[in-house]
Amino acid sequence: MAVFPHVFQYPFAALQEKGFEMKGHWNETFFKNNNPIVLELGCGKGEYTVGLGKLFPEKNFIGTDIKGARMWSGAKESLEAGMNNVAFLRTSIELIAAFFAPNEVSEVWLTFPDPQMKKAGKRLTSTRFMQLYRQILTPAGLIHLKTDSPFLYTYTCEMAKANRYPVLFQTADLYNSGFADPILSIRTYYEQQWLDRGLTIKYLRFACEERDSLTEPEAEIEYDPYRSFNRSRRKG
């Protein structure tokens, strides 16, 4: 990955010792503009990061993943296309606040994360992670969730409701909802596999506003009756 100037891999030891030098300065130092920064967390091959970068040249996109090899495809495609609004960052999501300053990020995309049905603390739309995203988001920062999991979609809707997050759009069947948006043109490899199997894709967009405290939803949510693919391979 060292051949890609827009891929950042920062050793944890260096992060502990002196911090990340571009924290708070991504636009000034790397993108050379003042456009909004959008993160895709757990970007896998970077299909969404690159796709969004092509659709919205007026925004800057950064895909993050803990496994650097996964990002190679997106890094190669964006470099060859001469895209100057796309970058990739190798890190765990739990460390994201070490790389971005408060108010530096405008939107966060969560594309097909593991629903973590039995481990709420690892669920990327749990209140634990909302508190983490809040550390780097602008006051009206947006969260986008795209998932094939009925469980995760329902849980996230309930979480947003419990914490009075303004829901801007939601649908349990994105491609049959009448929703007209350029993002519909972006489909990952596995997403197309799920659609071919007759599964519906769910989408939720809400504003992650500042709250004094957050509440986990109390509703009992039925587990998904299937595992569409080995979850550990979904982003590979």
* Number of strand segments: 8
Largest sheet: 8 strands, mixed
- What percentage of the residues does DSSP assign to strands (E)? 15-25%
Averaged pLDDT: 93
Question: What number of domains?
Answer: 1
User: Treating each run of at least 4 consecutive H or I residues as one helix, how many helices?
Assistant: 7
Kindly state the percentage of residues in helix: 25-40%
Decide which structural class fits the backbone. alpha/beta
Spatial order of strands in the largest sheet: 1-4-3-2-5-6-8-7
Distance between the termini: 16 Å
Q: What fold name goes in the CATH topology slot?
A: Rossmann fold
CATH class: Alpha Beta
Shape: globular
- Could you list the spans in which at least 5 consecutive residues all have pLDDT below 50? 229-236
CATH architecture classification name: 3-Layer(aba) Sandwich
What is the string of helix and strand elements?
Answer: EHHEHEHEEHEHEHE
Compute the CA-based radius of gyration.
17 Å
Q: CATH superfamily membership, which one?
A: Vaccinia Virus protein VP39
Structural descriptors:
eight-stranded mixed sheet, Rossmann fold, single chain, 20% strand, 25% helix, alpha/beta, globular, 236 residues, disordered C terminus
What does this structure look like?
With 236 residues, the protein is an alpha/beta fold. Strands 1-4-3-2-5-6-8-7 form an eight-stranded mixed β-sheet, sandwiched between helices. The protein starts with 6 loop residues before the first strand and ends in a 29-residue tail after the last strand. It has helices at residues 12-18, 26-31, 47-55, 72-80, 127-134, 150-162, 189-196, and strands at residues 7-9, 37-41, 60-65, 86-90, 105-111, 137-147, 167-171, 202-207. The chain has a single domain (36-233), classed as Rossmann fold, CATH 3.40.50.150.
